[in-house]
């Protein structure tokens, strides 16, 4: 799957070809009927009627052809799904953050008990905690509808939604819960399909759950066999075994249970502090046997994504909605999290600053953001998954992390303050689900 194209780029080729064809057709008609726009010879009623009829017919045909060229819909198997959630073409991911000082309140407050303490920037007295939600994402050619909690509950009554992935998906899950909890307090807490956390809004029978999984695939510590083996013969004496074809048990049952799944992975694949490439590397296994020669983490990521996408598609019932969320950016400056990196910004970055921080060619501290997306797009091509692209809008928001208020020994420039930017992710998520539901 190619990176998301701008609407103008998507429309340029078909519309240009169409107008070229239309011009050619009109010129040919003029030639065949000896049409001369400069002639002052009177036109008979019959010839005028015939001319008008032919012109109107051609115009109707042109309108139909133009409509089909402007709104291409592809089958699930040909490309990863794109969507225009309004009657006019609009790319919600292309826009900028607009400051709105008139915002008096947030969608929920710091009293929502599901907010992890380190993300509760209001409670932790982060200096710009109240300012974070005053920045509104504005797509260039349309508006992103704000999340309507009551409408969401009504629209997705008798539905189960599962968030599968690392703690950034929990960040988004908590945001969704807090917004829904504001309008519906009759909630049952439980652990559906072995979820880490789950809630059912009883009045609507809407369930949302979070299944924690760092790599999506099952993994655990690997130790050498005293009797030797293939990896031992290559000098490996420690590491982490990653079974590329076995889903993590915490979410293996989720695809059968949920009507909607939203999946992510990425942060742990570029984590040398956890998976040291020398001292404790990732060692990939398939069908219980080590993959030889051993492969690097990026190749292992491709293998895991391919297997897990296939697994989800085989387990979910027809009509279920499968979504993969793109990578959430970190904003460490001056070093990584364990080397003095920080995120002291108090307002969103400028476009030039975004490129300086995330351009792959710069190979900076946060380079994994776009690298992970490259692997996602490549592997998801041809699948039945929709892609929820939150990366670009989030790259600007260096100001929206807990930073020093996260309560850790280092700045938290990876997770997001709540309330905060993941509320906007859920604006996009709701628009996505509404679009899919309307067109299913």
TrEMBL record:
Q: Where is the Trichome birefringence-like N-terminal domain?
A: 89-143
Q: Name one GO molecular function term.
A: O-acetyltransferase activity
Where are its TM segments located? 48-71
Organism domain of life: Eukaryota
The subcellular location is: Membrane
Q: Does the keyword Ribonucleoprotein apply?
A: no
A Pfam family annotated for this UniProt entry? PMR5N
What keywords are annotated for this sequence in UniProt? Answer: Membrane, Signal-anchor, Transmembrane, Transmembrane helix
Native organism is Chenopodium quinoa
A GO CC annotation recorded here is: Golgi apparatus
- UniProt name for this protein: Trichome birefringence-like N-terminal domain-containing protein
Mode of membrane association: Single-pass membrane protein
- Protein family: Belongs to the PC-esterase family. TBL subfamily.
